[in-house]
Amino acid sequence: MSEVIPTAERKEIAITNISPNDYNPQEMAKDKYKGLVSHIRAVGFQSPLVVRERIADDPESIKTEYVLVDGEHRLRAFMEVFADAKEIPCTVMKKADGKPFTRHEAIISTIAFNHQRGEENPIKMAAALKMALDGGMIMEDIEDLTGMKRNRIESFLDFDSLPDVDTAPPKFEGSDNEAGSPIKTKDPIIMSFAVYPEMRDGIEKAISKARAELPSETDIDEERGKCLEIICEAYTKTPEDNA
Q1: Where in the chain are the domains?
Q2: Alpha-carbon span 91 to 73, nearest angstrom
Q3: Which phi and psi (to 5°) does residue 156 adopt?
Q4: Which of 67, 111, 156, 181 could form a disulfide with 126 if both were Cys (CB 3.0 to 4.6 A apart)?
Q5: What pLDDT is attached to residue 184?
Q6: Is residue 220 classed as helix, strand or coil in its secondary structure?
Q7: 7-115 is classed in which CATH architecture?
Q8: Ranges under pLDDT 50 in the chain
Q9: DSSP of 30-84, one letter per residue?
């Protein structure tokens, strides 16, 4: 990997001079988009779009000088909030040698930007929401500014006890993991996967069956995770385990 770091130029670019890319794999639910619009309305436009210069390999449908790499939904929300705006803050990606990113490099960058946003830690999310509420924020404001539905907010707040959250700044030295962030072994993690509609019934039936094996004191928030653990353990047992 080259030791020369690619450049990033900040500038205001005419909205009419930016084309959306034709490959963005990310979609945003209506309530989440509504929250994005509300947040921009409340605090302004804080995260510039990421764009690249148009190149010869781009489709003929792209006529503008710049092409979006990251920020399709932010662009739409910006135009909704600032309907009269002619320009928008952008970061122009360029290689270390000053040349524009190729189309294929930009595709990977778009995927990377989407992937690097991370996942929610429910314990820390609950702590953050409680701090906001304790500080005087009302539930309706949280719904409006985040796009989260009330039942989702309340599901985070249902945790009865929260472990201490380490607020020390990350060391970036690879202490407990590659990012240098502390690992809490008892914190739950989120696992997501996609299934086809015809597979859902079988999965739900297996989860229902596994509920019979749960101890009576199982917390409702852990129930589905515990059921999946039971199913996976049963599936991965070898004949020797049952002997």
Answers
A1: 7-115, 120-184, 193-243
A2: 16
A3: -70, -40
A4: 156
A5: 46
A6: helix
A7: Alpha-Beta Complex (3.90)
A8: 1-2, 160, 162-163, 165-185
A9: HHHHHHHHHHHHHH---S-EEEEE--TTS-TT--SSEEEEE-HHHHHHHHHHSTT
